[in-house]
Structures are given as structure tokens and as C-alpha cells.
Amino acid sequence: MITEAALLQFFGRLHPLVLHLPIGLWIGIALLEFGGALVRRRAATATIATLAWAAALAGALAAAAGWVLALEGTFAGRTLELHRWLGAGAGALGLLAAAFAGLQARRPFQLLLLSELAVLTAAGHFGSELTHGDDWLTEPFAPAAASVGVDAVAPPATIPPPEPTAPSTNAAVRDLAPAVSTPAPAATPRAAGERTFAGDVQPLLEQRCGKCHGAQKPKGKLALHTQEAIAKGGKNGPAVLAGDPDASPLLQRLLLPLDDDEHMPPAEKPQPTAAEIELLRAWIAAGAPFENPFRADAKAPPPTRPDAANGTDSPAPGGTTPGDDPAPERAPPVPTQPPPTGPQRGGVLGAAPAPPAATLAANPIVEAVAPRQPAAAAATTAAVAIERLRARFVHTAPMAQGDDGLWIDFAGVAPTTTDAEVDALLSPLAERIVDLGLARAPVGDALVPLLLRMPRLERLDLGHTRITGSGLGALAAHPHLARLVLAGTPLDDAAVDAMLRMPALRRAHVWDSGLSFAAIARLRQRRDLIVDAGEAPVTTPQELEPPPPGQPAPTAPAAAPLVPVNAVCPVSGKPVDARFVIVHDGRALGFCCANCPAQFWAAPAQYPVVVR
Amino acid sequence: MTPLDPLAEHALRLTRRRFFGTAARSLGAVLGTAGLAPLLADPVPGPHFRPRAKRVIYLHMEGGPSQLDLFDYKPGLRDRFDQDLPESIRNGQRLTGMTSGQKRFPVAPSVFRFARYRNHQDGAWISELMPHLGSVADELCFVHSMHTEAINHEPAITMLQTGTQQPGRPSLGAWLSYGLGSSNHNLPTFVVLITQGFGNMQALSARFWGNGFLPSDHQGCKLRSQGDPVLFLRDPAGMQATDRRALLDLIAATNEREFARTLDPEIEARLAQQEMAFRMQTSVPELCDLSGEDGAVQLYGEECKQPGTFASSCLLARRLAERGVRCIQLYMRGWDQHGSLPKEMRQQAAAVDRPIAALLTDLRRRGLLDETLVLFGGEFGRTVYSQGTLRRDDYGRDHHPRCFTVWLAGGGVQPGISYGKTDDYSYNIVQDPVHVHDLHATMLHLLGIDHERLTYRHQGRDFRLTDVAGKVVRGILS
Predict the structure, then answer these.
(1) Comparing C-alpha atoms, which of B422, B343, B330, B338 is closest to residue B378?
(2) CA-to-CA distance for B307 and B299, rounded, in angstroms?
(3) What is the mean pLDDT of residues B233-260?
(4) Over 90: is that where the pLDDT of B140 sits?
(5) Residue B237: predicted pLDDT
(6) Would the CB atoms of B322 and A485 count as touching at under 8 Å?
(7) How far apart are CA A89 and CA A67, in angstroms?
(8) How far apart are CA A504 and CA A527, in angstroms?
(9) CA of B27: which chain A residue's CA is closest?
(10) What pLDDT does A249 receive?
(11) CA–CA min distance A96, chain B (Å)
(12) Which of A51, A182, A324, B131 sits in a 20 to 30 Å window from B43, CA-based?
């Protein structure tokens, strides 16, 4: 079935077909335009204009197709960006030049023609760099050893010597050299059969995969040149699942039939030998160690790392939790727990909701277009963790598009949530959480270590939880926490010390929180903090409309306010605001704001009252 | 495949979406924003930008409360009692058929006395009908310069709720459900509560909270005020929850097969709603159980425990907000005072004044107000001239779409200000007019949505809540 998507893809793939047409044409046009001087006869302007229009249209077509082709995502990075924009620029310039040629405006046309040639050259250069690599022309002159991991992090001693069969400077010949490419044992002392990442695996990856999955051109966003890059994985997730070679996409791709589209390296490129594949398998089976040596001939069951399923981008290996099931999304629905059709529906800005994955896969039309992914490369840690939260009906959404911060809210499931569950669910995502709602959940201080691992947290709603002052104390140094809801919690006054120290805190809700009046008063001394202790609003109007003529004078809706005996606030020295009056020692005392009375109450003797 | 076959069209849309989904992912990488890719792959890509509000509580005063007797203080009118409305003010503007035949249009100053309450400007003038609201005036952002095109209830409410006067478009809450999704998957994303009023009541159609052409699980869910809040949620005698589950699983399996065959989105909606109903069997009774809310009586008043009152709706609104429901809409009926305005408005205002102030206070102290957008308003305003006989203490007012007052509070709105001005007769806007589309654009903006980018393709074109208009009112943003 021909779908629009397929047509688009087809159109994009026309790019390599048409792109040479405008290049040739523009060069021809330039020859006609400027070469006239050599043969002392000028080409007819009509000829040039016709050719210019043909070149311009072909160029526009090539640029458009290229733009669409870029959406396929085979290429990425700065080179693609340069090529894309230069190509678009060349297309636009070409149209402009053709227009001027048609108008017979000679000077501007010549100028545009020259710029078109310049931009075309640049665009073509970067385009060829994309498809052939940036060393396409220089490679024949480079010494052979240079292509085997010189820039690798390994110390010189462990770099294997250049392969004995490959002294040739011709890279193609070298790469096609048979079988022997398993690096020879290095001179460094180590046990027989022992290999290392730096000494054996890295050079192999560099040689077989490095050209397309290196620093220069991480195709599919996968780079294999450094330890960090391998840990990061590609666009389909990690390529290496430590301890599990059969599930590792890296090995899966190597072992696919050569004619499979997903096979790596691509069929037309040199293929690794069986021995090399076995080396990779042994390395992954041994837990993909970057430092320690491993045995290539060991057939013993490989040591499994508990955090292997977590993906390799989780830096803390200690965080094993009961919820770390590697494939929770594949678990069959528990009968009493409805399948998560709810969370998957709705909330799709700008697009209709995506149907559940199961129905998508069952649909032949979709399957034809959907990219085939190796089963194990399905999800990164974060995606799995988010899926797990959603399956538990915990609201999990990005703060905004293009912002990887998360808003996570337990509002829908609060009463049935526990400390342990929150910890298990949120641990993998702790670093991304910006806004966390735990209100009404029976959780408490046990979560503080988790909260400490959320450096980006800005808003924390702990209303009606069991958090205490001492638990809060540990959060005192939190760098970004700006809004804190503690309404209805069993706080003690120690919480105030914590809140006074939190550097970014701007708003605290402490209504019904067990804080004493003195503690709240102390909290209010912090001037950059808005403290909401749940006070009833002020009910007295400032002014009443005069009564209509012929009607009795009104009485104020609320009792007449007390008249303070002082004109300036005893705490701040500012003028008294009539709304803030307290009765102290039989006198009505006025203050400038809502914060000062509490401060006054805490130590009345310190603030002498000036009676007016 | 015929080009107009909706199912084929849907299938096409799916494949297209798959393609552009992948395209967008690689685009993200191209733009160099690491970490963006997994989010773009996300079924919930999130709001367009960081929202200031996470949810909306929309208090719709159905019938069109008189701005002249509540919030738009015109002291000069007292001296113009029973004078004719100057032609320079009316300017030939259309009237409804109810007053267009009147011989004269006598100015009716408000019978109610106004008081000035503290806000962050020079105070807010609010009539004696709303003293409690006055006490929270420093939270309110009054917009005195609202205007709409519709002059009768049905089209005017439709305009406010769906952005157009004709029936058939999705309502604001449905758009929010579609755009932002739910944040509590045990309750509907959009909940509607209705209170019967004391005055003249107009029809209140369910399509005001309908989904229009959006998938039907985005429609508002009305909670009934009497008996079971939602009908048929209770299992019949003899049926166990496990039986219900087994039944639903069986039906779901059949439906999923049918969906795989036809790709009809309504099957998905149906599936989602069945699951939602199953979960609501426990979540709705828990929601409506007010046994732990003894403290609320002090705040909302005694009648908050009586189902169907506006006070109980306000209390439920707070409970819904706490539970993460995106859009909560309260309708108060009976604000259509063509006659006997002073008597009817006293009753109407008495029913809503304290609960609304209580709701704002309650939200604030729970830390919810700064992330909840509260909107109060009717579908239009009322005329300065009296409909029917004008007496000192009795008059009526006709519909007036040229200006009316709404107020907003909470998430991202500047608290304690007034925006926009009307002329001395509260008949025309003289400063900063705000159209319904502008209000919608602003509300979506506060919720993190660019109103021009929240679209749904239907019958060959992209639809928006704001149609082809709407400007975010920057002056009221904090």
C-alpha cells in the first residue's frame, strides 16, 4: 500500500539522484557566461536564461528532497546542518539568479552566478563529507597505522602493533585483508587468553565501526569511540547490555544475515571476522568491563550485573530496587489492575492520541512504515521508568516540550502510595524532576534521601504528608527549591531553621502544620519569603459608597477597626497600616505589615511603642 | 480506498504520524538538544512551554450576571436615574427582541451600594452583594472590558465554551483534555458540576461541555447533585468487582480486534471510557465522601454538606483540584434578570459569594491557588437601561454583549488588579477590550499552550479553540 509517508520518503531519496544536475548545469552556465571572453563570442542571453531556469528548478528540487531526506535521521551533527542550510541557500540563490537572467540584468546575474557557484561548492563539499567521510580524499595519503585507534584513550603500551598483513597504504586493501585482524597479544604482561577493552576491544570497534560510529559521524546517534559514548548508546538506546551479549543490539546487528537492512556493518563495508565477533561476545558476556581484563575463551556463565538492565547511563550502581524489573512493559496485565489505556490516551499536543503499542504493532499498515527495532534496544532507563510511573497512574509529564525536566504528581493515587514505592518509582528519574506532588500520600522522612538526589527540584508539595521538621532539615541546602507546600503536616519548629536556610525558597505554605505562632513569626522574618499560614482574609472594606440621598447613613459591614495609639510601626519604623492592629497590654498597637506583629509578640520589650 | 473514507483517512493519519514522529526525533538530535529525543517519542510531549497553571476552575454564571450590580462601579449613574440613555452611547447598536420595542431606555443605577476593597492597585469596587469576595479582592484580576458577539444565551454560552457561536465545536475543557491529558487517571479529565439558581433559568445543554469532533473521551463528565453522582457506577446486586473485571476484559479483547481491523478512533475512546468507568467505581465515591471535611463547614458555610448547592460544588471543586483534575467547571444557573433584578440577584449572590471566597482561600492555603487558574464570569453583560418598568428599588436589565466583567485568579494571573475600562454607562468599552477569543488565548497561554498550535484536523481543515483570532492579554499576566 502506498502511503503518504512512503511517498515522502521516496521523494527524499531522490536527492542523490538530482543533486548533480544543478551542479553540472551551473558550471556550464558559468562557462557560457564568462567563457565568452576566451572565444570572443558571447552566448545568447536566451540560452543562458533557459539553462539558468533549468538549473534553478533542479537545484530547488534537490534542496527540497535533501531536506526531506534529512528527516530520515541517517545523518546528524554539524556537517549535516551546514550541508542542509548551504544546500537550501544554493537553491534559493539559484532561483534568484535565474530570475535575473530572465530579466536580462547582466551585472546582478553575474554576481549571483558567482555566489551560487561558491555556495554550491561549499554545500557539495559538506554533502560529500556526509556520505564519504571527511578523509575520503586524504585517506590514501595517510599512514595505515593512523586509522587504528591513535586517538584512543589507551596507553601506548596496549595499542596493538599495526597488523602484519596490512603494511599497504591502501585502506581498502588493508580492510579486506582476511582473518588475522584479531589483534595480536600485546607485549604487556597478562595471563594467557586475557584481553582488555583498551587493548583489544577498542581498536576493533575503532576499525570496524569507527568510521560511521565515531566522534566525527555518530550515525544513528551511536558512537563507539570512547567508554562514555558506548555507555550513552544511540537513538534506540544502549547498544551494549553488559552481561547479556544476545540481547545487546551491537551483537545482534553483527549477527543478522548480510542482506538484512539492519545488518551492521553495512553489506558493502568490510565485515568483522568470526574471531572478532567472538571477542566482542566475550567482552559483553564478561560484563563489558572497561578497566579490568577479561577472558576471551571463557565459556562459564558470565557474571551478571544487577544494574545491567538499567541501561548503562545510570551512574550509581548501588541503586538496585525491587522495581528494577528489566521489562515491566512486557508484563501481562494483572487481572485486578486495568491495562493502562487511560494514561496512554489524551494529552497529545498537536497530534491525536497514539493508540496502544499493541494495537499499533498488530496493524499491518503501521508495521510497514514503523522502523524495525531490535527487541532489546527498546527503551532507555528513563523511558522505562516513565512507563512504569504511568502504568501506576502517577502523572508524569515533561515541564514543556524541549525541556527534559519532569512534573510528577501522585495526586491520582496518593492514598495508596508508600515511601518504598515512591523511592523505587522515582529513583531512576530523580535528576530530572522539577515539580513533585506528593500531597495526601502517607509518606514521610524516609523520602528525604531521594529528595536530596533531585537537584533540579523547584516545587515540592508535601501537603498532608508525614514529613517532620528533622526530615526537612536535611533539605536545608537545596539549591533550587522555591515553592514548598507543608500544609497539614506534623512539623515541629525545627522545620523553620531549615526553611530559613533554603537558599532559593520564595513561598512556603505552612497552614495547619503544627508550627507554633512563634515559629511562624520567626519564619516571617525572612523578607524574601512569602509565608502562607492560612490566615483568613481581611474582610473590612477600605471605603464605602456614600448612601443615596434620603437614606440613613450606613453602618460598616464589619465592626469598626481599632484605632492604634501609635503612628509608626514599633518594629520597622514605617507608618502604621490600620489593617494590622493588635491589642497588647490594654492598648491597640498598629503595625506596618502582617509580619511585624508576630515579631513584636516574640519579644515585646525589644520594640518600644511611640504613642502619638 | 476512496479518498473520503474516514477510516482509511485515519489509518493514513497513523502512518503519517509514525513517520513524522521519527522525523521529529532525528530533528531533535540535529538541533543539538540532547535529551530531547526521548521526550519527542513520548506519547505526552508536554505543553508548548512551561505552564503557569496546571488546571482550570471555571465558574460560569449562566444567564449573564449584571456587571453594573456586581463589579463595574458607575457612581455617576445615580444622578441620571430614569434619564434616557443618550443616543451617542447606544449608537444604534442592536438590541434583543425583548427590549427593541421599548419606547424609551431609562437609565437604571444599581440599587446596591459598592465598597472599595484593598487590592494591589487603588482598590476594587465591589457591590454589597459580594462582601466575602471583597475580602479576597487582592487575589482577583478583574477584566471589565470583556465583549462578545452573541446576544442570546445559547450562542453566547457556546461562544464562551467552544470559541464559536454555532454548536459542534469542542469545549475549552475538551481541548485541555486533548492537549494536556489527565493528571489523575482515576477520574475524568474534565468534570462539570451544576447548581440550580433562583432566577430565570435558561437551557443548559450537555454540548457546552461536549467533545465536538475530538475523540469522545475528552468530553466533560457531569457529576449529578442528587443520588449517585454518576449513574450506574454501582454494581448491581450479586455482581462482584471481579465479575465486572472479567466482563470488561472480554469486551476489551473483542473491541481491540475490531480496532485493529477498522482503526476507528471511537473504539479506542470506548475502551478508554470503559476502563475509566471501572476505576470511577472507587474513585468517585471517595471523591464525594465529605466525612473528613468537617473543617470546611467553617469556611464554605453550613450548606457545603448539602449536595447540589454552590457551596458543595465549590468544596468538590477543591477536592477535584487536589486530585489533579484538569478542568473543573461549575455552572450556577439563574443569572438572567430581565425583571425583579434586586430581589433575584440578592439570592443568587448569597448562594455564591461565600463559597467562592472560601474556595480561593482553601486553594491558597493548600498551595494550589498559584497553580490553578480560576475564572468567574457569565456569557455576556446586562444593559444599563431598565427592561420594563423602572422603579427606585426594582428594575430589570436586558442582555448586553458589548461589555461585561469577568475575573480571574490564581496561576500566572496578576493578582489584585483591574484591567480594561467601560464608559460612564458601562455600555461601551473605552480601554483595552478583551474578546472571548483573547480570553481563551490567555487561558491556554497560562496553561502552557500556544493557542495557535493546539489544532485538530477535522473535515479537511485544522481547527483551534480560538478559530482564527485571539491575542494573549499580556496586561493581566504576572
Answers:
(1) B330
(2) 16
(3) 87
(4) yes
(5) 85
(6) no
(7) 12
(8) 13
(9) A71
(10) 82
(11) 28
(12) A324
